[in-house]
Amino acid sequence: MSERLGPIPDHALSEAQRTAAQEIAAGPRGAVYGPFVPLLRSPELMSHAQRMGEYLRYRSAIGVRLSELAILVTARQWDQQVEWAIHAPIAAQVGIPSSVIAAIAARERPGDMLVDEAVVHDFCVELHEHKAVSDRVYADALALFGEQGVVDLIGINGYYTLLAMVMNTARTSVPEEGAWRMPD
User: Fold this and answer.
1) CA-CA distances (angstroms) from residue 99 to 43, 57, 68?
2) Is 65 exposed, middle or buried, given 0-12, 13-18 or 19+ CB atoms closer than 10 A?
3) Cα–Cα distance, 88 to 71 (Å, whole number)
4) Cα–Cα 20 to 30 A to 8, which of 2, 34, 36, 179?
């Protein structure tokens, strides 16, 4: 399958697209890549989305390590190879064990998670698979992260679901160099 909604040549960018692209490039991402390439067709949506994503990825109330774990669960739930290729190495760098990453890739519940990792994993899986979270899993998340943490965790799942939908629809190509892949 060929990629849809690929890069827009610089000379074809509207002023709004150019401004939105510059905003992303000037932030912690440093460039327009992955989901932001197709999102550039709607520069206002892209700008709002990237600001939400910047908060959720870098400053959420649950911290970067657990945010990366939630991103991996979401990527796996949506079979989103680009999200996986970008975030699996980051998750490893911030302390998610390779055994946990491999189990998520295999659609298995990792057996060797820390308590906070297990709570995030179970919350995300339930939210994706049941479109809701059980009272027990909600209570566990609330006890560990408080209300802001629970809402941020929901936000991470929703935001990365949006990005997965965009990239799955656009057929965004997986970066080849050093890419981590999920099994099909």
Assistant:
1) 39, 22, 15
2) middle
3) 9
4) 179
Backbone angles phi, psi at 7, to 5 degrees: -60, 145
Residue 104, exposed/middle/buried by CB under 10 A (0-12, 13-18, 19+)?
Answer: buried
Distance CA 169, CA 111 (A): 33
Q: What is the pLDDT of residues 12-43, one digit of tens each?
A: 889 999 999 998 888 888 888 889 999 999 99
Residue 44 phi/psi, 5-degree rounding, is: -70, -45
The 10 Å CB-count burial string (b at 16+, else e) for 26-60 is eeebeebebbbbbbbeebeebbebbeebeebbeeb
Tell me the whole-structure pTM to 2 decimals: 0.92
pLDDT tens digits, one per residue of 102-119? 999 999 999 999 999 999
Taking the CB of residue 162, how many other CB atoms lie within 10 A of it?
A: 17
Q: How far apart are CA 35 and CA 52, in angstroms?
A: 14
Tokens of 25: 């490039």
Determine the Cα–Cα distance for residues 58 and 130; give it in Å rounded to an integer. 27
Scan for tokens 């990365």, then name that residue.
160
